[in-house]
Design brief:
The protein is built from seven helices and eight strands. It has a single domain, classed as endopeptidase domain like (from Nostoc punctiforme) (endopeptidase fold (from Nostoc punctiforme)), CATH 3.90.1720. Helix content is 52%, strand content 16%. The protein is elongated, with a radius of gyration of 37 Å. With 229 residues, it is α+β, with helices and mostly antiparallel strands. α2 crosses α3. The longest helix has 44 residues.
């Protein structure tokens, strides 16, 4: 008799456990199904992307990445080229000015520009007035390192002097040149003498962004200077 009662008790206990496990499993399945329904509903509510739209998105992202990469390569190349030119220019510091001079014993402004840009394979004409016609025009507000800047020092309008921008700060632009009073030296464009005689600026094509060079083939000089500094 005791044996029979024991069997009945064990059976009831196992049945109770089995029911609880079943209910727990059922509850889990219900929760899982709800999550799945919500996810499916959300997916259905999203706008469908057609194959053409997907290709366009991939193409756009690729173009942006390629453009950014090209820009980074250009900036890196520009910094390297300018660094070489600036190193050469600084090696002339203290060299006396000599009209018509082309050596470290004495050099004039245009010959100085000729020699320092030559280290990067950039060929410039011999005189400043002709150097003012090479490359691409640049607005004064958009000057960058490596730009050629021109002045009228002995004439009101005629270009008679040239220098190279070596540093651009928020409120000041410094340039290096061979001047008649100090020889090869560094000056500020903020100085009243130089700011009053500043006339124009040019950027060698090697230092110009590809878009600026491309547009130079299509637009007038005035439009390039305004739209693509």
């Amino acid at each position: 008799m005791k044996f029979i009662i024991t069997l009945l008790f064990v059976g009831l206990f196992l049945g109770s456990c089995s029911t609880q496990s079943y209910l727990t499993q059922q509850n889990y399945n219900v929760q899982n199904n709800k999550s799945g329904l919500v996810a499916a509903k959300t997916a259905l509510e999203r706008p469908m992307i057609t194959p053409d739209e997907l290709r366009e998105e991939i193409f756009t992202n690729h173009a942006k990445t390629a453009e950014e990469l090209e820009k980074n390569i250009f900036v890196s190349s520009l910094e390297s080229s300018f660094s070489n030119i600036l190193t050469e220019a600084k090696s002339f510091l203290g060299t006396p000015y000599r009209y018509g001079g082309t050596t470290r014993n004495g050099i004039d402004c245009s010959a100085f520009m000729q020699q320092i840009y030559e280290v990067e394979g950039i060929e410039l004409p011999r005189v400043s007035s002709r150097q003012a016609k090479v490359g691409l025009p640049v607005n004064k507000s958009d000057l960058q390192k490596g730009d050629l800047i021109f002045f009228s020092t002995t004439s009101k309008y005629r270009i008679t002097h040239v220098a190279m921008v070596m540093e651009v700060k928020e409120n000041e632009i410094k340039f290096i040149h061979s001047g008649s009073s100090k020889g090869v030296s560094v000056e500020s464009l903020n100085h009243p003498y130089w700011s009053a005689r500043y006339r124009t600026a040019r950027r060698p094509e090697k230092f110009a962004q590809p878009m600026m060079v491309k547009m130079s083939e299509l637009d007038s000089v005035q439009e390039i200077a305004t739209r693509y500094p």
